[in-house]
Design goal:
The chain is mainly alpha-helical and about 325 residues long. The chain is about 65% helix and about 0% strand. The strands form two sheets. Strands 1-2 form a two-stranded antiparallel ribbon. It is found in: Membrane.
Length: about 325
């Protein structure tokens, strides 16, 4: 497969008719690039603060650590690594720049990093969602609710597992997925539907976690103020859903655009937003415990404090002689 050359340097494709490429000073989508830097910086600080709150709560307030804490820790590590890979691409000028103004070797390098980003974001997303499923399962001792959470967790594993294997084995040989020099003669699947499935399933599982939890909260024996606070807390999953929808809206028209290095910049921007929202929303269930420990007046109401203390442990019932079920940690239930 021959590639166009300029001054002895190979490029993936020639510029469209009427466009005069500037190889020394290529045009950049500075708006998206600068927005990505800002989103990464602000999002990293916010997500780190919320993540630190969850780590502290799990380590010192409701210790020992449980399985969802380990899942969430690994999720934060791998998703942070994915965000860093995106920033590395921006720093080296291979995102937000037209593909016909970037040397072929740089395009291959960028494709490899984005490929790696996708492969590590997927398990990070799965672990974060499973962490929430496990946490919610401990809060409400209801068989139907637990079955629904198991279904959501199973759907998450299966759907994202299919996406991961489709991305990893997208081409034969495997290296052809990022080494564009090998595309001639390689056998590759149609990958755009796979990326669409990734974004869609991210939104679907976020929606399931919200619509399963909110009706359950409304059945609890707690004041309407506490219910409103709990619903607002768990409805933050819509923020992650919104980021997933925005990424899908950007992704669909760009999948068939050959100028991949330019159009991917907006998609990766929304991927960073989505990953940060996953971390923040995944840290919120322990925020009430954290605030109750350091600032109990923030959560205090004029009503009896035991009402709030036991609300999530009873699922529409009343505490037995003022005691929680042995299957629930009293500190863990202070989330509203």
């Amino acid at each position: 497969m021959g590639f166009p050359m300029f001054n002895g340097t190979e490029y993936l494709m020639s510029a469209p008719a009427g466009y005069e490429p500037d190889f020394a000073n290529p045009y950049k989508d500075t708006t998206t690039i600068n927005a990505t830097y800002w989103v990464f910086g602000i999002g990293f600080i916010l997500s780190l603060l919320f993540f630190g709150q969850r780590l502290y709560t799990s380590s010192f307030i409701r210790s020992p650590w449980k399985s969802d804490d380990y899942f969430f820790l690994v999720s934060w590590i791998v998703t942070t690594a994915a965000k860093i890979l995106i920033i590395v691409c921006l720093i080296h000028g291979v995102l937000g720049v037209h593909v016909w103004e970037i040397p072929l070797d740089a395009v291959i390098w960028e494709t490899k990093l984005i490929h790696a980003t996708t492969l590590i974001v997927i398990p990070g997303t799965v672990l974060a969602k499973l962490s929430l499923c496990i946490f919610y399962d401990r809060l409400v001792p209801n068989r139907w609710y637990r079955f629904s959470l198991c279904f959501t967790g199973g759907l998450t594993i299966c759907a994202f597992g299919v996406v991961w294997f489709c991305v990893f084995f997208a081409c034969r040989p495997i290296e052809a997925a990022w080494n564009l020099r090998l595309l001639d003669g390689a056998s590759c699947i149609n990958r755009p539907p796979v990326y669409m499935l990734q974004a869609i399933m991210g939104g679907v599982t976020d929606l399931l976690l919200v619509i399963l939890t909110v009706p359950t909260i409304l059945k609890l024996q707690m004041s309407w103020r506490q219910k409103a606070r709990a619903v607002a807390l768990f409805s933050t999953g819509f923020l992650t859903l919104g980021a997933a929808v925005a990424r899908l809206v950007v992704l669909i028209p760009s999948l068939k655009n050959p100028d991949t290095t330019f159009v991917l910049a907006q998609g990766t921007l929304w991927l960073i937003v989505e990953v940060d929202m996953i971390t923040i929303c995944g840290s919120l269930p322990t925020l009430g415990v954290f605030l109750n420990h350091f600032a109990p007046r923030v959560l205090r109401e004029s009503g009896p404090p035991a009402d709030m203390r036991y609300a999530l442990a009873t699922f529409g019932g009343t505490p037995n002689q003022g005691k929680l079920s042995h299957s629930h940690d009293s500190e863990e239930n202070l989330v509203v």
